[in-house]
Amino acid sequence: MTDKGSNAGEPSRFGRVFRFVTHYWLLSPVLFGSLVIARIASTLVDVTVPIASGRLVDAVASGSRDDPAPALWALALLVSLAAIFQVSRQLVTFLLNRMSARAITAIGRDAFAKVQRFSSDWHANSFAGATVRKITRGMNAFDTFTDTLAFNLAPALIVVIGVTVTFTLRWPVLGALVGACIVVFIAASVALSILWVSPANRAAREMDSRLSGTLADSVSGNPTVKSFAAEGREDALFAGVAAKWASRSIVAWDRGAWTGLAQALMLIVLQAVMLTTGIYLWREGRASPGDIASLIATQFLITGYLRDIAQNVRQIQRTINDMDDVLDFRDADFDVADKPGAKALKVDRGAIAFDDVTFRYKGARGPVFANFSLEIPAGQRVGLVGHSGSGKSTFVKLIQRLYDLEGGAIRIDGQDISAVTQASLREAVGLVPQDPILFHRSLAENVAYGRPGTSIDEIREAARLAHAAEFIEGLPKGYDTLVGERGVKLSGGERQRVAIARAILANTPVLVLDEATSSLDSISERLIRQAIERLSAGRTTIVVAHRLSTIQRLDRILVFDHGEVVEDGTHDALLARPQGTYRRLLEVQLGAGEIVDAAQ
Ligand code: ADP
Ligand code: MG
Q1: What is the separation of C-alpha 26 from the centre of its chain, rounded to a whole number of angstroms?
Q2: Strand partners, 40
Q3: What is the pLDDT of residues 474-514, one digit of tens each?
Q4: How far is the CA of 552 from the centre of ligand 1 (A)?
């Protein structure tokens, strides 16, 4: 993420959250409008219930026993108001259920869509578990935020304002005083929340994500943990992160509690102000004992609601903090982005050209490629060999534009790949990675991932060509077998063959195999070599190979060394160079004696 937005000041963070939540509320404007109206109506009805009770009391007190009509009318009014209140309150619930469900799914969908499209670099540097937690936490927080606002904060505010206004009409001076106290109380609560509690909450939340990330990392790495009997070490790692989480959480929670205390003290001051003024008015002869009684009742009402408001402000602020990460996702720029108006790549033959390419990984000292140029004609089958770290994987990642270049351009059929849409590029370039990742779905679905909607016959045929059919059909559930998270229930070679079957179905004009045979035994390797030969017929193919036997029969072999092509030719041509790197690599793999035979 280039723009993390985390340096923004607290108030602007809150502005950002409010823009965010209103965006999702207004996804269904009619629903939202009805909700606001229903909420205001039901609260006002609630406030008028005491007035209606007063009416009833007056009607009974001043009416005659022979004519109960006024009292019965007052009773009818009271009962209907109570009924209207209950119905309108539930109406708020029904409306809110729909609005929240829609908004929450939209938030999840948008965050997921964005995260999926972040660069490979971003994913390599993020804990999957923490990312999952950030998204689900943001969705929950939005829900709580909206509920708190609709059911607690908004009604409380409406009541407090309503009561203060009525009060001011009766005693302007006292009303103004109470109003001022309320404004100070709410302003102080919000300021404390935003400026003091919120930063501590954010620090705690960071650790909360780290905790989830650590757990997910250890749990998904369990096979490694087991093989090194490292459960104790992982326990300690978890305990370390948990301890940090605990200490940060205590700070955040304590600040919340201190804020609560400050608010309680402010409420006592408010009560004292109201009652002192009441006594003063009584001494002046401007208030009767009855007035003092209603003053006390009002003061209880207001402080009760203010206490609610304070609590809900804290709740709101916590949920605002919890939405922060989802907001960061939303605001982040893509490291590798489609240019505005980028067109789809049109591949007819699949010629690849590296033109003066310079590339360096972020934070790396030197470039992997500096002014690197190379042409691969359409339909050519090229093998890449070279020591580990010589840049072979980077070369194929650049063809897929998993990273952007520092200089130069890569072209496919003459089109700069940085100027076309990434989706069209990756649809044109098939990849069988070194360590294919499968989904915890059926084998049929995994094979069909290259071309959704494929018939089972086509899936079987692809599996057969990739020599995957043999093992799949031997499984009790065949193509319906679930493969475990990331495909852990299959061996490396089996996963590789599923990935090749996938690539066969995807049928892309350009094909890249990154050390696809390195984890195979020699028999599977021979089968896969045949599969690759079938697969690569007629398409531009790049095969990164550790095992040189895999690539001997390709059209051209490139030997990489420190980001340069040091040898370029056919197997036979390269073998003919006595001191050549390719020949030396082959000698190491086969033993010198066999090479002599091979050369003869
Ligand atoms: P090969 O596939 O030939 O073994 P790579 O292309 O994977 O080599 O790596 C080329 C160089 O780039 C190596 O020095 C490696 O350490 C470095 N490298 C690879 N991936 C990254 C990365 N994500 N971030 C930083 N450096 C990397
Ligand atoms: Mg590699």
Answers
A1: 21
A2: none
A3: 889 899 988 887 777 788 788 888 888 998 888 899 999 88
A4: 25
Distance of alpha carbon 522 from the chain centroid:
42
Quick check: 599 pLDDT over 70?
no
- Which residue, among 102, 114, 199, has the nearest Cα to 142 in the 3D structure? 102
Residues of the chain with CATH 1.20.1560.10: 10-331
pLDDT digits (tens, 9 = 90+) for 65-80: 788 888 888 889 888 8
Report the mean per-residue pLDDT for the chain: 86
Nearest-angstrom CA–CA distance, 426 and 212: 32
Residues 6+ away with beta carbon under 8 Å from 580: 559, 567, 574
Does any ligand 1 atom lie closer than 6 A to the CB of residue 365?
A: no
Query: Which superfamily does 350-386+404-420+539-600 belong to?
Result: P-loop containing nucleotide triphosphate hydrolases (3.40.50.300)
Cβ of 119 closer than 6 Å to ligand 1, yes or no, is no
Give CA angle at 562 (557, 564), nearest 5°.
50
The count of C-alpha atoms lying within 13 angstroms of the C-alpha of 244, restricted to the half-sphere facing its C-beta, is 14
Q: Which CATH number fits domain 10-331: 1.20.1560.10, 2.60.210.10, 1.10.10.60, 1.10.10.10?
A: 1.20.1560.10
Nearest to 440 by CA among 480, 477, 483, 475: 483
- Written as six digits, the tokens of 593 are 């004696």
Q: Look at residue 25 and tell me whether its pLDDT is greater than 50.
A: yes
Side by side, which strands form the sheet with 369-376?
Answer: 369-376, 352-359, 407-412, 415-416
Q: How confident is the model at residue 3 (pLDDT cuts 50, 70, 90)?
A: very low
How many CA atoms lie less than 13 Å away from 460 in the CB half-sphere? 6
Q: Please choose from 361, 388, 512, 585 the residue to mutate so as to test ligand 1's pocket, defined by most ligand atoms within 8 A of CB.
A: 361
- The pLDDT of residue 453 is 86
Least Cα distance to 298 among 47, 44, 43 occurs for 47
Ligand 1 site, residue 391, Cβ cutoff 6 A: yes
Mean pLDDT, rounded, for 174-190:
87
Q: Topology of domain 436-538, per CATH? A: Rossmann fold (3.40.50)
* pLDDT higher than 80, residue 290: no
Q: CB of 546 within 8 A of CB of 539?
A: no
pTM of the model: 0.74
Q: Are 336 and 422 in contact (CB under 8 A)?
A: yes
Where in the chain are all domains bearing CATH 3.40.50.300? 350-386+404-420+539-600, 436-538
Instruction: State which ligand 1 atom lies nearest to the alpha carbon of 384.
Output: 3
Question: What is the token pair recorded at 26?
Answer: 């207004």
Beta bridge partners of 361: none
Q: Which of 508, 573, 556, 553 is nearest to 535 (CA)?
A: 508
* Per-residue model confidence as pLDDT tens digits over 234-280: 999 999 999 999 999 999 999 989 998 999 999 999 889 888 988 88
Rounded distance from Cα 416 to ligand 2 centre (Å): 24
Distance, CA of 476 to CA of 527 (rounded, Å): 23
pLDDT for the residue 597: 44
Atom of ligand 1 nearest to the CA of 391: 6
pLDDT digits (tens, 9 = 90+) for 535-585: 788 889 999 988 788 888 889 999 999 999 999 999 888 888 888 888 888
